[in-house]
User: Fold this.
Amino acid sequence: MATLTNAELVAALTGRRRPVAPREKSGLRFAFYGRMSTSEFQDVQTSRAWQRAVSDELIDGVGSVVAEFFDVGVSRRWSWQYRPEAAALLAAAAGPDRDFDAVVIGEYERAFHGDQFREVVAGLNALGVEVWLPEAGGPVELGSPVHEALMVLLGAQAQREVARARQRVLAAMRAQTRLQGRFLGGRPPYGYRLVDGGRHPNPVHGRWGRRVQVLAPDPVMAPWVRWIFAERARGRTVASLARELNERGVVCPAGADPERNAHRSGERWIARTVAMILENPRYTGRQVWNRSSTTGHGPGGRVGGRGSGALRYNPVSEWEVSERIAHEPLVDDETFVAVQGLRVATPAKDGEVRRYLLARLVVCGLCGRRMDGHWVHGRAGYRCRHGFSSAKRRSESAPRNLYIREDHLLEALPHLLVRTAGTVEKGVGKELVDQVREQRLQIHYDGERLEFRPATLTLETAEPARRPVQPVLALDWCADVKVAEI
Assistant:
């Protein structure tokens, strides 16, 4: 049995023997651009289809679409240079063999946010490419007062929509965590796995067959989490725990779940991994949300992560903790609190609490590790044992321990601050240290020279040759502290 085409079927319904030949398309050649933010909760074909339909209606009789660019899973707050398809459109527009004359967009809010519109349109217009918008009824003219006012209105409306949606979602997630203890996605903590938690609490989602997921102890990994807390509560160091886990061949978190940890090697435990497990309150059975977030938009976040921007850890005051036990705990509250207390400074044998003004600010210039506070001969200092206290055994080829006195560092701070900031506020001791922290600097020492470096690594956009030279200070330990020429 022959199958009719859509055109033949329509012709039969209207009494025509054959369909009318389609009108030959001519005129301007358009590149279509569209975008959708998520692929998990939206249908790509449907979103693309309705945006394309709006665009086709706008340019009907004027031209036709000859190229298509559609971004999926990209936030509108990302600049066009960071969106794969938008960046490809800009590159094609600047190319010598461009095959389109104008760009048509199905909806303003799908393509632009904030001040992006003016930047993109101005750049395309400079290349001789028009931008058509349904809201403008055709091509946008940046010099037109009417279009200027329209774009300002659309930009404000887009920002308002994003802000309102963000506030509603964040408020809902806070309530779901605090009141319901609901798991809101992400990687389950090491020692847990996701299991079915029953029907979705939302009646509509429940009728659709959606289920919730809850955390349950992993039969293989959970015993090691309990062991980590028990051993740490006995007074063992974090580094010794990491070493023993490696020696016993226990798989680390990244190795246990490589799909969710594509940004890590998964080869071995490190001290920081053990420390993060000991600091995670989810092991007490409570659900916790907003421990970390992303800053900025565009590249810089972890590989495979949904966040747009560099990852940062939020202060404890911003965490949202469930009011009830949400899943089976792996450690009791008393042990968890006791382990956290081990990080608090404890008195020495003589009853005095050692204070280190430059704690976490002094870095070894040989191996890159943060130097430990070390009290010797009745005074504070800082030393690095080049991995001896880390998760792996000390190599025989490792350099000798590095040590520097705190009073020598405090003497050098004014000279380093002058060379870094140009000026230094008057002060001594803690006042100078506060200036170093405010400028987000670290002191790097390699046994002979001191230098300031940024405490936080950021995305470098400048060429290496243009990066500023760090101020360096050479120290003569046989005489007074001297400032070296840069």
